[in-house]
Amino acid sequence: MGISFTVLSSGSTGNATVVRNEDTTLLIDAGLSAKRIDELLKERDLSGEELDGILVTHEHSDHVKGLGAMARKYNLPVYANEKTWFAISNAVGQIPDDNRRILETGATREFESLRVESFGISHDAAEPVGYSFYDGAEKLSVATDLGYVSDKVKQAISDADVLVLEANHDVEMLRMGRYPWNIKRRILSDIGHLSNEMAGAILSELLTGRTKRTYLAHLSRDHNMMELAKLTVRGAMEDRGCFYKDSEFRLCDTYYDRPTPWDKVSES
């Protein structure tokens, strides 16, 4: 079977992704209400009873809004590093000690035949992380909420068959937007969010022929549009000498209001 995934929702209003293989199904973040997550799961022919656990990237509400409710409703173990657990403890309500699992930054955990590797990222949270998933030779990496991409992050997500990467904002749209300057400054900082241009620059470094698809994720509804994001990312790649045919590599959409189709990592 290999790795399959669907991005249930992506953006500032809520984030959740499902990654599964033949014997494990994991939810990455639960940034919407439990009711809404259940609805999105149903759209992809899944139910909460089929989940084996929840991985948390960081404590911001658009990533943990429904975490406590989902964990209690389906008696799910929740995995996060210690600093993130401390940061979310008051926000997610009571979770039984047996279901509060520690997955430290940089650690690897085996979920049957699905291997999960945590890696640290730069964002204004207690100890934010991204995740890479492995099944045999297959690799899927998920990296959003990045102020910038460090060499360690590049190493962690390099050679992924499929990558879910942040392309949060168009810089000029953000600068001209309605947010107060202190919020704009935070978003543009090294602990903020990755712009379209920066996402393209990173992809131009990472594309080695193995990565077949990149899903552009966590787009701002106020300061970005998917077609603009794809155009800017492609342009930034071409400016750096990285040219490709759509048959060799594709930029794929994510949505804030509906899930992406199931995607098999092994598919070309």
UniProtKB/TrEMBL annotation:
- The positions making up the signal sequence are none
Q: Which reaction does it catalyse?
A: 3',5'-cyclic UMP + H2O = UMP + H(+); 3',5'-cyclic CMP + H2O = CMP + H(+)
Q: In this protein, which residues make up the domain named Metallo-beta-lactamase? A: 13-191
Q: Which InterPro entries match?
A: Metallo-B-lactamas, RibonucZ/Hydroxyglut_hydro, WalJ/YycJ-like
Q: What top-level branch of life does the organism fall under?
A: Bacteria
Function summary: Counteracts the endogenous Pycsar antiviral defense system. Phosphodiesterase that enables metal-dependent hydrolysis of host cyclic nucleotide Pycsar defense signals such as cCMP and cUMP.
* UniProt-recorded name of the protein: Phosphoribosyl 1,2-cyclic phosphodiesterase
Q: Say which species the protein is native to.
A: Paenibacillus brasilensis
